[in-house]
Amino acid sequence: MNEKKKDYLASLKTWGKEVEEKMEGVKLDGKDSEEWKKQLSDWKSLLNDLLEEKDEPTDEKIALVEEKSTKLFHLIKYLLENPRQSQGAILPGQHILPDLPYAYDTLEPYISERIMRLHHDRHHQSYVDGLNKAETELYTKQSDNKLIKHWMREQAFNGSGHFLHSLFWENMSPRGGGRPSGELMRQIEKDFGSFAAFKALFSNAAESVEGVGWAALVWELRSGRLAIQTIEKHQMFSLWDVIPLLVLDVWEHAYYLQYENKRVDYVKNWWNIVNWQSVSQRLKEAKKVNVPYV
Ligand SMILES: [Fe+2]
Fold this sequence. Notes:
With 294 residues, the chain is mainly alpha-helical. The chain contains ten helices and three strands; from the N terminus they run αααααααβββααα.
């Protein structure tokens, strides 16, 4: 074979290997992943055939390899730049406990390390386990119809427990506290009159929860304004069709070891660790949802 053509085909082969190595660590949606692997494999076998051919490869065959490599290059470029929304979708029963975004002891003195360890490692983990079990029964095993009501209740309780706790950890920060700024502050002032009025209403709502539950600042999609809603347990009396922005866990496991029955003190101190950046980011994203969105 003409040396020039041989060198050219060999350089294409090296390029293919580099692409394959580079793509190994990239997580793509299943279909996209199959697509580029199929194109790469077709292209590789065509290239190998040409390299092994005794006769001189025709210009048409070289052009075909070239065309396929250009197509492959553009496909990979497109996939890397436009990952599908479904990327990272969590399959039923596959939830995992998220790590805390800070160390266990960094919210002290407002929330003790002992509470954070128990709260995150034991309580939150149990909601993750409970949700995975309920989802497996409902979607994977499709178990006895008579038990649907039970598993639906388990899914709601543990699912809400898992999602709310995941948000709660993000809603706090060792560098938190103070007052929000920018768009979030303007929205709070518009909808509640002042930051002080919002804080008082949120705190009073948290203190009013009977037994166990949450206080939440939410974005009401349809009315285009902020609202406050309490949640009993994790899922009862929930306000639907809203996006929660800021949540406060007022279950006893969140404060009893440190504050005993003085929930008022816990709520008062909690404001020192609110992560306003997380709330602002969520408000920004929530406002992008257009209504009606179904
Ligand atoms: Fe909790």
